[in-house]
Design goal:
Blueprint (H helix, E strand, L loop, with lengths): L1 E4 L6 H12 L1 E5 L18 H6 L2 E2 L12 H17 L3 E5 L3 H8 L10 H13 L3 H9 L1 H6 L5 H14 L3 H7 L7 E6 L2 H18 L1 H10 L14 H8 L5 H23 L6 E4 L4 H15 L2
Parallel strand pairs: 1-4, 1-5, 2-3, 2-4, 5-6
Helix pairs in contact: 1-14, 3-4, 6-8, 10-13, 11-12, 12-13
Length: 301
Amino acid sequence: MIVLTGPTGVGKTEIAIELASRINAEIVSVDSRQIYRFMDIGTAKPTQEQRRIVAHHLIDIVYPDEYYSVYNFRTDALKAIEDIKSRGKIPLLVGGTGLYIDALTRGIFEGAPRNEQLRRELLEKEAREPGRLRKMLEEIDPEAATKIHVNDLKRTIRALEVWFQTGLRISQLQREAKPVGDFTIVVLARNRKELYDRINMRVEKMIEDGLVEEVKSLLKMGYSKDLNALKTIGYQEIIEYLEGKESFERTVEKIKRSTRQFARRQFIWFRRYRDATWLNVNDDVLEKLTEMVSKDAQKNL
């Protein structure tokens, strides 16, 4: 199976839809934001027309205030893959969420269940002493600390939760996890200036398409600005604008900058995949991908 990934704005959606049409495939989304209902513009979901052309799975599957873990994703993705295969089609996994890709291609440990009491205690500790949980993680599991962003409180808590319940480091358990199939990772890339120009234009298009109105609607429905779903690029900046903390022009520039920085972090993550195939989207990428799928199909005959 092919995992088609790459940084935000590189053009994964358009290429994936064309490829899926050529090879009789259905797309399984590997995107941790497109899972949320009502969050369409800011997550750059495929349009309804694109979804009519090629069936997509794992989009719009939870509400913004619902808990959804990497383990949930892995379980749902495996079900989708088997469903697609059962109908004689090819599963094409598409998206840029590194943790989701790892859950499939490297495996995920299934121990250490969610512990609400422990999580509350950790959150209270963080509230009393901001930054304390990060320091704890760096002391307990330095390897995990290098992989978890300094501001990612959700995954920091999960790593500590695993340690306190099992006495084992989450980094160790992740190394011992097993993949769930045979995957070929393909990373799509562009010239950096071209990518950044595309990102800037995409943010402007999101604003034109109604990103501000989308955020207003989510807040009007009662969703808290403190939800993890809304603490993501685009939504967080618009909320600050609506609260009068930033000018509109400054808000748009912040979204562009944050998205470019996110793309850089994605590139760093993808470089960890030593066996991945890197393709420039301007270099006959569809022909090369089609050939890869054909060779893989022949190998499995």
